[in-house]
Structures are given as C-alpha cells and as structure tokens.
Amino acid sequence: MKLLDLYAKMKGDLNQIEQELERCVSDDHVLLGEASLHLLKAGGKRIRPIFVLLAGKFGDYRLDVMKRVAVPLELIHMASLVHDDVIDDADTRRGQLTVKSKWDNRIAMYTGDFIHGKALSIAAQLPDPQIHQILSNALVQMCIGEMEQIRDFFNTEQSIRNYLLRIRRKTALLIAISCQLGAVAANTDRLTANRLYRYGYNVGMAFQIRDDLLDLYGTEKQIGKPPGSDMRQGNITLPVLLALQDLKTRDPLLSEISALREHGGQKDAGRAIEMIRQSDGGELADQLANRYIKKALSALEGLPNVTAKKNLIDIAHFVGKRNY
After folding, report:
1. DSSP label at 94?
2. Using CA atoms, how far apart are residues 45 and 186, in angstroms rounded to an integer?
3. Cα–Cα distance for residue pair 210/288, rounded to 1 Å
4. What distance in Å separates the CA atoms of residue 178 and residue 49, rounded to the nearest whole number?
5. Interval 85-115: pLDDT, tens
6. Distances (CA, A) of 160 to 5, 210, 239, 241
C-alpha cells in the first residue's frame, strides 16, 4: 500500500483529528488564533497522529481517546516548528510564509507558547499518569535538543554521536512516544507498547536523516525552501559531517562554511552544496538511515499480524525512500 492509499483509508479518523486541531487553535484572541491557523493550514503529513492511531489498533481502539493523544502530539510538533523558524530566521516553510515572517518574532514565540498550552490542556483530560510522565519527559528532552543545536551552530568539529543524540531529542523522541502513547492509551500490554516505541524511535531517526539529506540534495519545489537552508543557518547535519571526513573535500568545504558564518547565512550555499554532493557523505548518511529502517522493521516482529502492522511496515519503507 502506498502512503497516499493509507491516508485515504484513514481519511475519516484523520478528518476528525484535523477538525479537532482547528477547533483547538481557534481562539477568542484574534491574533493568536489567526497565527495558529496560518501554521495549521500550511499543511503537514500529520505523521504523528497517524502513528498514534495505528498504534491504537493493537489494543482497545477508541477514537475519542486516541484524539486526546494524537492532537496534543501534533500541537507540540507545530509549536516546535514556530519556535524553530524564529531561531533559524526562516522565511518559508512548506512553501508558505512562516509565522515569524508574516507577523514578527514576538508574535511567533507567543503563538508557539499558546499552541503548547493548548496541547497540555487536552492531554490533561487523560487520566493515566504514565502518559503525562512520558509526555513531560519528551518535552524536556526536546528543549535540550534545541539548545544543543544552538550550541553547535557552525560547529564543524562536533561528533557524529552528538548529531545523533541531538536528532534523537529533536525529532525521533516525539515520533517514538506517538507510537508508545497510542498503544498505552489503547490499553495494550507493556511489551507491545515498548516494541512500538522502538519502531517509532528508529523510524524517527531515519526520518530526520532523510530530511537532512533532502535539504542538500532536494529541490526547492520538493522541500518548500531553498536547498542548503540548514547549513546557511548554521545547522551542521550528518551529510555535512561525513563530507568533512573526506580529505579531498574537508578544507574547501570548511572555507565555504566559514564564509557562510561570516555572512550571517546570507551567502549563497551553492558551492558548499556541490562539494557535499561530490563527496560520499550523502551515500553514507543514506546507508545509516537504511540501518535505522531495518531496526524499525525488526522491532515490529512478534506483534500480531493486524492491518496496522502492515501499515507501519509501509510507512517505514516510505520514510527510507521519501523525497518530499
């Protein structure tokens, strides 16, 4: 099954999630509601709600309960995007103006905080304290990941281990707990919830590595922003770190990155991108992403052969090959 087929199959439940998202961010405060809706209407894959819903299929699936997990997780993701765009000084996301670009940094920061608050108010309706503990720990780790990324802006000497720990916190953890909390809310056994967590973690790691590859190898039409945006903003990702290990590439690439830093990210990154593309950094990063996908698929072994398991397998294969 292709991913679009899965969206079509889940359309009814996803539409209810979308309606709930819109209801939650609509507010009597016109500006906060307008800014939040602007972000929501810019679209997104809604991959986290999909993981919640599919994980719930392994237990007692009730959409009214699943919504109280899926909606907060997507709102938390949305809030992190608003804050990221301020930190990265990004003008566009998914081909649309960012909140900070359409309004300003202050409005964007308060919009992100507002969306976060909405997420917590919905999650508070769930009685299971385990869900709140998992969610609060993830929020702490995401903040640490953001601070680690800021600390390592333009740091070409950072280790690959540090990069992997950062993307674990920034991206993989929220996907992992989307799978885990969907299972917990559906009252599955602990082993099932743990297996789904491991699946989500590994898919999340692969997802971010593929995202970082797309930033350097994709087109503006594919990714909704100019290629090399991460590097211009100082975010040194895995393909760049691996390209820097190539002795033929290292010195000229270091010079280009240094020039980007001196120009505050305003310099064209075309030469640096070309050097990375000519190195084996992209291929090596892709190989690591594929290893994470294999681990994700392995985590599903032993789970019941329900339709949701096949759907999760399909998503893993999509993430491993995605080009948008």
Report:
1. T
2. 23
3. 10
4. 7
5. 888 777 777 778 888 888 888 888 988 888 8
6. 36, 15, 10, 7
Side chain identity at residue 217, one-letter code: Y
pLDDT digits (tens, 9 = 90+) for 138-182: 989 998 998 898 899 999 999 999 999 999 999 999 999 999 999
Note if the pTM is more than 0.85: yes
Residue with tokens 């600390």: 151
**Phi then psi for 59, rounded to 5 degrees?**
-140, -140
Amino acid (1-letter code) at residue 62: R
Question: CB neighbours (10 Å) of residue 278?
Answer: 13
Burial class (CB in 10 A: 0-12, 13-18, 19+), 18: middle
- DSSP per-residue letters across 100-152: HHHS-HHHHHHHHHHHHHHHHHHHTT---HHHHHHHHHHHHHHHHHHHHHHHT
Distance of CA 44 to the CA centre of its chain: 10
Main-chain dihedrals φ then ψ at residue 93, nearest 5 degrees? -150, 130
Q: What are phi and psi of 305, to 5 degrees?
A: -85, 60
Helices (H), the chain: 3-9, 11-25, 30-41, 47-56, 63-88, 99-102, 105-123, 129-151, 160-167, 173-185, 190-217, 220-223, 229-232, 238-244, 247-262, 270-278, 281-300, 307-321
Query: Using H for helix, E for strand and C for coil, what is the string for 173-190?
Result: HHHHHHHHHHHHHCCCCH
**Residue 51, amino acid:** F
| Residues 69 and 181: beta-carbon distance below 8 Å | yes
